[in-house]
Amino acid sequence: MRYLVLHVAIVFLAVIQTLNAQDKYPNELLALKKYFTDIEVQALAEEFQGVHASSGLQDGLFPVRMTGVSTKPIVDTANTYLSLLSSSELLQTQFSVDSSEWRRWFNVDNGVYVRQGLSLKEMSAKQRSAALQILEVSLSKKGMQQAFDIMKTDRSLSELNSSSFLDEGLYFLTIMGKPSETEPWGWQIDGHHLVINYFVLGDQVVVTPTFLGAEPAVAKTGKYQGNEVLQDEQNSGLLFMQSLSQSQQKLALLEAQKQSDNMVAAAHKDNLILDYSGLQAKTLNPVRKEALLELIHVFVSNIKEGHAKVRMDEVRRHIDDTWFAWAGEAKDDSVFYYRIHSPVILIEFDHQRPIGTRMLHDQDKPTRDHIHVVVRTPNGNDYGKDLLKQHLSRHKH
Description:
This protein has 397 residues and is an alpha+beta fold. Helix content is 37%, strand content 15%. Helix 3 runs antiparallel to helix 5.
């Protein structure tokens, strides 16, 4: 019920933005800001546990160890960026490594949500270049391009809605802790349809929660006409579902017709209780298991190749305990939702109802033009929390 109300609130925001009505309806905008703030306050009041099944948290999944993949380039670029900030900008940007700021991210636009850090738009040219260098040394070429393409969709959405709250530069960077090759720290970029939490401990990294989205997913007009986002994730998921036998598809199916939004692990769901459901990978033959791993790799490959391999090795060790679930039809033009869920990774892909493109679509039905994706690390290691807890228990700070 809470998320139905949330969706209604976001739809209302989209409507008044479509009318360019931020000046005409200031009281409504203030009410929405309060509403979203209340949701965040309620979520942060809960002590972090992590996404887990109703049977409880699984322990021992994330040992502190050496991976052999250096994080020095990330440390160096982050320190360079911080050196370019004034004292007031540092206060706005840098937080403690265990700060609740990690959990303060939200997939709504800046009209109703206040973010910390500096936005790319307000940075100087030197600061912006240094900030983007952090992303470049942390993400793969594919992941970096995807981040840029998502930012472009906000420009396209702004053009459709004449909204000042949407812009390709309204993405905010914060640093948690002090960049170090030995001590825990991390960075976060937060904005509409793009949130990356990147925790670092030694040469280990945890890059969740990551939230990706797009509306319009394919830009038909405007400055970035032809820009496409999350199409590989869409098409690869559909191909995997279509490759399954009818009996396997039946086991994977959560619901035959997709009527609404299905995502359950988005913002402020850090302690979500989610049981495994759908088709268990241990029932698949080796070829289909590899196909499922390839689908997971589509999402994991957004980070640098060395750390992506470490992550995929972790995922592979739990492949038999990985579940694949689906909602909707599986025709070539279907709208759908799918979930991949194991003890160490949770991926959701969801075709959503239109918000900023309501003028182009049936307003009550999910569309391929609005996509949400979330990737999490269940059992307590989102934001690197499990690694941080182990580190702090061994070292006095």
